[in-house]
């Protein structure tokens, strides 16, 4: 029996067929964009470390400048890694029932369609989960086959070039601004040794809470159909996305913790962009203003897809997480904020993200005043 739950090759093929081509620029222009992104990414790393007081531990993770199809391929590889614990949970019999209930080819097409949309939107990301062959290609797997890195930074060159042209911002400044954000994510995972393992354990807990009974799946699908209707008629930010509708109650408890973590990570990157920006990005205020408009805008179809996939949640994470980090840094300095990285118990809860004073009282209350 085929052990795979998703037709991964079909997902890649579907996404590559559907993804839109990048901006129409010459080969020389494309080469210039790639070269400058590589240079600015290295420069941004130094700025981020100087501001955050966080230094990487262990092997240096690579910087990858990619096009849209390569972004798709790499993300499918990462998603494949994430399904390994799910496969381990299933017996052969349950796996067969699951495949019959969901359909691996149908799932492959659905995943490919979603990735085709995202491939035209993502500016960059820190890829935390990669298969060994990806690290091997980067020279970051030892002779024993064990990875020596914690992830890889990827910048999607055509999307960055398209965004800067669409918004009418200074290309060099915008590229540096994006690099500051992505290098912050890279620093979070390379400077905080327990963070990757904690994220893995939370994802594992999410999978363990998954009910794979076909009848339960059918109920979840009916909820998803309701979510699709909500997205079509734009029933507001409080109506569930398809992602949320497919969750069991037990999964939602785990998801609360995952969302709190991701909100912190996104908010921290957003705050660092603006804190470092004025020194190294002369037009940072203009970029921030135009980029916020880009986040909130888009065509009706674009807004529909964002709601359907739950991407509006990510935009809320930028704002809510950014507000939390700015409030803590303003009160306790960068050093005080960095206490958040001491252990999983010092991470803010979802409730504390909207009440930074509560987090400071719980975590910093008994400590002497810490300033930047």
Write the layout of secondary structure elements.
Layout: H1 8-18, H2 27-52, E1 63-66, H3 68-82, H4 84-89, H5 92-102, H6 104-119, E2 124-127, H7 132-137, E3 152-156, H8 157-167, H9 171-191, H10 195-208, H11 214-232, H12 242-245, H13 249-280, H14 284-296, H15 300-309, H16 311-337, H17 350-353, H18 356-364
Parallel strand pairs: 1-3
Antiparallel strand pairs: 2-3
Helix pairs in contact: 1-3, 1-6, 2-9, 3-6, 8-9, 9-13, 10-13, 11-15, 13-16, 16-18
List its salient traits:
3 strands, three-stranded mixed sheet, 3% strand, 372 residues, globular, mainly alpha, 2 domains, single chain, Lysin, 69% helix
Task: Characterise the protein shown here.
This protein has helices at residues 8-18, 27-52, 68-82, 84-89, 92-102, 104-119, 132-137, 157-167, 171-191, 195-208, 214-232, 242-245, 249-280, 284-296, 300-309, 311-337, 350-353, 356-364, and strands at residues 63-66, 124-127, 152-156. It is mostly helical and 372 residues long. The chain has two domains: 1-168, Up-down Bundle (Lysin); 194-372, no CATH class. The protein has a three-stranded mixed sheet, sandwiched between helices. Helix 3 (68-82) packs across helix 6, helix 10 packs antiparallel against helix 13 and helix 13 packs across helix 16. The longest helix has 32 residues, at 249-280. The protein is globular and about 55 Å long. The N and C termini lie far apart (58 Å). The model is unreliable at 141-148 and 224-237 (pLDDT under 50).
Quick rundown:
The protein is mainly alpha-helical and 372 residues long. It folds into two domains: 1-168, Zincin-like metallopeptidase, N-terminal domain (Lysin, Up-down Bundle), CATH 1.20.150; 194-372, no CATH class. Helices cover 69% and strands 3% of the residues.
């Amino acid at each position: 029996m085929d052990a795979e739950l998703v037709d991964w090759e079909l997902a890649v093929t579907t996404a590559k067929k559907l993804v839109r081509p990048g901006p129409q620029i010459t080969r020389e222009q494309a080469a210039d964009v790639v070269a400058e992104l590589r240079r600015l990414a290295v420069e941004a790393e130094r700025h981020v470390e100087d501001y955050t007081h966080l230094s990487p531990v262990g092997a240096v993770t690579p910087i990858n400048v990619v096009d849209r199809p390569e972004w798709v391929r790499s993300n499918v590889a990462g998603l494949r890694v994430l399904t390994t614990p799910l496969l381990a949970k299933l017996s052969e019999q349950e796996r067969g029932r699951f495949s019959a209930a969901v359909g691996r080819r149908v799932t492959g097409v659905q995943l490919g369609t979603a990735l085709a949309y995202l491939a035209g939107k993502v500016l960059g990301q820190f890829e935390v989960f990669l298969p060994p062959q990806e690290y091997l290609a980067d020279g970051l797997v030892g002779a024993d086959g064990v990875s020596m890195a914690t992830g890889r930074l990827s910048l999607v060159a055509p999307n960055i070039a398209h965004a800067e042209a669409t918004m009418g911002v200074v290309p060099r400044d915008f590229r540096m601004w994006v690099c500051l954000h992505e290098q912050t994510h890279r620093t979070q995972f390379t400077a905080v040794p327990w963070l990757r393992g904690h994220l893995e354990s939370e994802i594992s807990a999410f999978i363990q809470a998954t009910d794979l009974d076909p009848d339960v799946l059918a109920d979840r699908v009916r909820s998803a159909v309701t979510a699709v209707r909500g997205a079509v008629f734009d029933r507001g930010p409080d109506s569930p996305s398809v992602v949320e509708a497919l969750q069991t109650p037990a999964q939602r408890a785990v998801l609360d913790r995952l969302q709190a973590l991701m909100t912190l990570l996104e908010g921290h990157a957003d705050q660092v962009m603006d804190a470092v920006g004025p020194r190294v990005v002369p037009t940072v205020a203009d970029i921030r203003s135009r980029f916020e408009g880009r986040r909130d805008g888009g065509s009706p179809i674009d807004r529909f897809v964002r709601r359907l996939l739950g991407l509006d949640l990510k935009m809320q994470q930028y704002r809510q997480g950014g507000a939390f980090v700015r409030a803590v840094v303003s009160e306790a300095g960068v050093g005080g904020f960095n206490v958040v990285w001491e252990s999983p118990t010092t991470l803010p809860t979802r409730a504390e993200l909207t009440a930074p004073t509560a987090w400071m009282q719980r975590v910093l209350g008994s400590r002497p005043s810490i300033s930047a």
